Amino acid sequence: MRNTFKITGIAMLLAFGPVAGFQAFAQKGWNNDGRLESTEIVVEKNRVIELPEASRNYEKFRIEPPEKKTNKVTYRFNDYKLADQDVNLSVRVLTIRQEDLPKLYGNYVKAGFGNYSTPYLKGYFHNKRDDKASFGGNISHVSSNGPVKDSDVSNTEIGAHGESYLGNFTIGGRANYERDGYNFYGYNRNLVPEGQTRLDEQSFNRIGAEAYLNNLLEASSKMQYKLGGGVKYFSDDYDASEFDGFANLNLDYYLGKTSRVNLFTDFSYISYNDAGKVSRPFFRIRPSYQMDLDKLDISVGAMLAYADDKVESGDKLNFYPAIRVGFEAIENKLILFGGLGGDLQRVTVNSLTRENPWLSSSFNGLAEIQRPGLDVRNTDKQIEVYGGITGSLASNVQFTARASYQNLKNLYFFNHSVMDSSRFVLQYDDEATSLLNLYGEVIYNRADKTRFGVKMDYNNYGGLNLLEQPFYRPSLMTSVFGSYNLYKKILFNAELYYIGSSFGKIQRGLGSAAILESDNIVDLNLKVDYRISEKFSTFVMLNNVLGKKYERFVYYPTKGFNVIGGITYTF
Length: 571
What we know:
The protein is mainly beta. 6% of the residues lie in helices and 52% in strands. It contains two helices and 28 strands. The protein has a 22-stranded antiparallel β-barrel. Strands 16-17 form a two-stranded antiparallel sheet. The N and C termini lie far apart (105 Å). The N terminus is likely disordered. InterPro entries: Beta-barrel_TonB_sf. This is TonB dependent receptor.
């Protein structure tokens, strides 16, 4: 048993000895940083491993060493060849997937109804994305009963517009028709016998059409221009009418990267017909040189204006300076600006009746002695000095503050007719009216989700000679407005505005008149839109939430609280 153990031990030594030696070699061949060191390995094929003879006598159990054999190793090389075949390899180029354009809805129709028997309809129609042309149309109708008897009002409009892109040129135009209906309900009802009413209706027809041509798409052109022209026609229920044909040109010629010459000019010919016919030609031209430096922008020019209103108190030919300077005090944050100028501002019956729809073309107070009909004059802004700042407090907050002083010749004021206090006429002072204007606004806008703003406009009129007050021109107007988009599902809009009181002069008998003060106006309007789906939404409009029937003009109360609700369909 002992001999057997010894023989087994010798056999294990022979079997594992080389392995242990190889492990030692392997550990030695690697350096500390894990790399294999350069080592030479010698393989001796003919070496025979022999054990030394033991000192004891084992002859009795002699074991002959195994016979050495030489095994011949043969190598066979096989040639493996694929059969020829045509393989179509499709190469796939990986690109960034472009985002799909959002679906564009170019049309919508809104329909609703409210108290005061108010039907409400609005529609807007437009073509989809097109790089050749853009065109569309609009319709609108709103009518309602007024705050008192016989104070109905209605407004209807239909229009179309379009433009075509011809290379670097754009040709376009628009046309519209409006019909506005009102009643002269602003009289002292205490003076009307009980049971009697008076109904004096008024309606306005407004037609307009114009066309234009420009090359503003050609940004590299040294000369850029915009040329336009058209006609406007106005008429009322008392056989008064006004025709206005106009044309204008705005041209820029770039002398270099920082300087250019600008030429602005416009012309109109107005023919007003009432009890008589009055022609009112009008022309302005303003050349200027403009320089845009790194921090400083300068514009130097002059305006020459001509108008013939056939009034003794107005000059036909007028000259005004046109100087403006802007300085960027803080880059992208604060701009200081100021200037010196003047202007001849065109006034039409069409525009005046938008401000005051109870303006009468058949009565004109004391001016009837001069000529029948409205005494319409252009406003001569003889001189204006202004300055202010504009910029942004943060990326989402913009502000503007401006102060100006003006001398205005033939500034119009609305006042009650001597013959009928429910109708209004135009009055002028014989001297130039001075005007101090202060304007400011701050607007916060964040990612089309939240918008909030405050505006203030203050006017102080001075230098009045014939007029006791600046009739129906309030000194202070402010507004606070905001909107909020909740989860792109509900859109809230709100506006709170204030208009200060003004004055009107009422004739109470022969040689007797009273100056009355109109109301201070505080009005709150709210609107909510709820999006049901991509195509349908509902809306609710709350007007004059405070419910005060204030009088912007004496004896003309406005509607109290009124609400309109409806649905919008987009397609």
